[in-house]
Amino acid sequence: MMNPSPNKLPNSARTAERLLDRAGVLIPPIDLSKVVSTWPNLTVVEEELERSGYLLSIGELGAEILVNVSDKEERKRFTIAHELGHWVLGLALKKKTGHFSQPKNAHYAEIERWCDGFATNLLMPESMIRTSILLSEDTVDLESLTHGPSIFKVSEHAFFLRIWEVLRLQVALVSIATGTSGVLVHAEKSFGDPQVQIALENMLKRSDIASQLLCSPSFSFSWVSNDGRVKCFGRRINIDYVLLALKWPDKATDVE
Amino acid sequence: MNPDENSLVRSIASRVKEHFDSEAPDEIVRQSRQLVLYPQEGLQVELPVGALDGPVLMHSRPKRVHLNAYLACALTGLTNDQRMLVNHLSDLVNLVCKSVDIDLYEPRKNTDPVHHADVPDNEVYRIDRERVVGSDLLIHLAHFPSTGSGEELTFAFDALVPVIVIAHDSQSVSRMITGIPCLKLDIRYREPEEMREMLGIRLQEIRPVLEQRKLAKAEFSVNVVGAKIRELRLDASLSREQLAKSVGLSVDAIEQIEESIDTISNPSLTHLRLIATTLKTTVAELVNPNYTESVLSGIQAILDDRVDETTAARFKGVPTKDQQTILVRYLARLLELVTNPKR
Fold it and tell me: What's the farthest any 2 CA atoms get from each other in chain A?
């Protein structure tokens, strides 16, 4: 994830990387308890809450990360990682000024976005994402894609958005139905920037593509978009759905 | 091994691991090799047969405490020749400091009146002051008169930073410098090379004292005074501007006192008295606030539905149920603090 304000806040990816190094966490799923325990005065407490969580700074006693006990496991992990972001920012400021607080030179929303980016980088570091997805010029291992969320213990939504961010690999769940007017193909879920989602919808309208999706249990083809050649790999999940992985060219180098 | 021995072995193993973790593995190996291959003269240890076959890992000396020094010297209004001399001597001092693992901060590289004329006056004051009071040692080149250096020496004295005064043997040094009642060493030299040698010896001698001072000072690297002043100012519904005006300091100075750790802000007793009077309290309360009293007044404020503006702003928009949970967590932890204040 891009750092929202490189001049005001530190690089979230590098900060997360250093933290994982310090905690000695090398493989997914990220052991958050190990990361948190690198600070003896930081604890995670589960409570009945209306919102997802809070970071409670308690002066010299350190801090508590309060997490909503009713949230799903993946959501709790994201909350802890997000609040860790606030903790790290607060500590950096404390080192400078002696007072634990959040940076005053950045807008509240910027800090929240930074903590989201930090949480993403902490739970799904770029290096681990790259090694977990088997991806080459000619193929994408769809198995590794579908197992990704459980390997990283994150939600499907978060994982596939991260896949897009790191690999420019757009994952989509496409429904197929045959009716009186022919084959109806529609992307029910798709993860990526809005423009690639629109491009995918346009591609699915082509009759040759629709028939390929309908007939083959697994397939690969490519098509030329405004950004260059897109390689598409797919597999029928069941009679109604197809899983697609579209490898978009890298912005600067891969454009034909 | 019986259980007691087992536990002893585990305890030793953990201490050894902790000990080695404090230094880079490469450094441990390098020092160990040096110790084995080139033992110190007079060190007579009977090594058992085969003792040198494998690597011997041990610390030859404890890890050094990182030290910082500040170089104070005339920079304003110098002729070219004078500037060249100051630069040459500064380079020498820097080299000597490096040789004893002391980082030297040189204002000429950051706030020089010629090369960094664009840095605003108040910034120069703030940067140089923070650097001096944050240093472990001040080295003063007393070759040319300098009001800036005079200020820096005062900052050093206020913060109990030891001082080394360097001057040429033929030169007379102001008694306002030689008379500073703090830990002070004088170096008088004839040739720059002699100065280099003398400074090296002095720094080696004084290093243990500086390390001890730094470790002792570390516990004051917290913001107790500033935080208390801010809290009482908000309680009294005073802005920083109003407090600054009442005390006779600038708003920046009040902000620095409130936001910096005590060793950096280091307000004078006179300033503390004026601030305490304005805030209707005592200097003792500012310097060593009573935590139990703070907790009680905080709880009282909540019970009276009278929460100060910073606390209120922090929980604005948080659902009431969550606010209550947070309050319970706060009270539980504060209870720990009250019953076990050393934690």
Answer: 71
